Structures are given as C-alpha cells and as structure tokens.
Amino acid sequence: MKTLLHTCCAPCSITCVDTLRQEGIEPTAFWYNPNIHPLKEYKMRKNTLVEYAASIHMKVIMENEYGLRKFIEGIYPDFDHRCGFCYNIRLEAAAATAKEKGFDSFTTSLLISPYQNHELLRRVGEEMAEKYDIEFLYRDFRPRFREGQEMARELGLYMQKYCGCIFSEEDRYTKKKKEKKDGE
Question: Exposed, middle or buried by CB within 10 Å (0-12, 13-18, 19+), for 16?
C-alpha cells in the first residue's frame, strides 16, 4: 500500500513511520504546514524533516508554502477555534495530493500528539477521504508519542516547543506564566 503521510515535523513522524513500516506500508512524507510561524521556525522544521527523511530513505513531497497570510485570514476572527481550520487545510492538501499522485491512502503524523484534538482530526480526515475518494488511513499513534520524542532527542533532531501557529506559541508562554503565578 502506498500511503502519503502528512508530516508536521520530523520528531512526530518517527514512530508513525516505524509503525507503518511494521505493517508493510511504505509512507511518503508530505510537507504542507502553512500554519507554522514564524518563518525561522517553519524553515527549521522543514529542513529537519528533509534531513531525517533522507537518513531513513523516505521520499518527501514538498508543498513549500509559508502561509502566514492565508492561515491568519482563515482563522480570523475566531482565533480560539483555529485548530479545525488548520486540520482542514492540511488534510485537504494531503488528500488531494494523494489522489492526484496515485497513492492508495493518506494519513497524518498529527495523530501521534496527545495535544491535538484527535477526534476532530479523525473526522476531518474522513471528510477529506470522502471528498477526494481516497482512503484515510486512521491510526492512533499516540501510545508511541513519548518513545518517538525520546528517539528524536537521541538522534539530535530539532524539537519545537509548540504546535506551530503563533497562537499556540502564545498559549505556551501564557500557560508558563500562569503556572509560575499559581506556584508562587
């Protein structure tokens, strides 16, 4: 089975790729992440994925769009519900690309994160599968999240501290500030 793996970053892809390969599925990574900001962060994550993919002999399809304006326009003015828009644009691009390039299915490394809205991700994946007439290969990769993070550290991969959008970075700092205040 040929599967297109939408890949948010190299660390999150490690055990996704491993799991799929154990099942006899050879994934091709798909980079499309217009949500990641700022540009320096976007480039760091992209370059880390390219280097990691080469080291494990995994093909990568690049949709290299730094999409700050498109992302902000898509979530404005409802910043608090940005994840749904984010999942939609990325999984739609993955489904369309998978269909266009003759893949049997598509999935996403976002399914490994315990910090993502897993059920919303699954629902969006299934909607895009129906829209583009291609299978959404659902896997709950979350049980291997910590293992993948540890492997990424051992490999010396760049590891980000927030989901990707500028608002998730803001949430990270706001949470730290609140935790510090609560701990005083």
Answer: buried
Name the nearest CA neighbour of 167 among 13, 37, 31, 41: 37
d(CA 55, CA 6): 18
Interior/surface letters 49-74, b for 16+ CB within 10 angstroms, e for the rest: beebbeeeebebbebeebbbeebbeb
Name the pairing type of β-strands 105-108 and 135-136: parallel
Cα separation, 24 vs 62, whole angstroms: 24
Q: What does the pLDDT look like over 102-124, one tens digit per residue?
A: 999 999 999 999 999 999 999 99
> Where do the structural domains in the chain lie, given as residue ranges?
2-183
Q: 140-169 pLDDT, tens per residue?
A: 999 999 999 999 999 999 998 777 777 777
Q: What is the pTM of this model?
A: 0.90
CATH code, residues 2-183? 3.40.50.620
For residue 128, the one-letter residue type is M
What are the CA-CA distances from residue 132 to residues 70, 96, 120 (Å)?
22, 6, 18
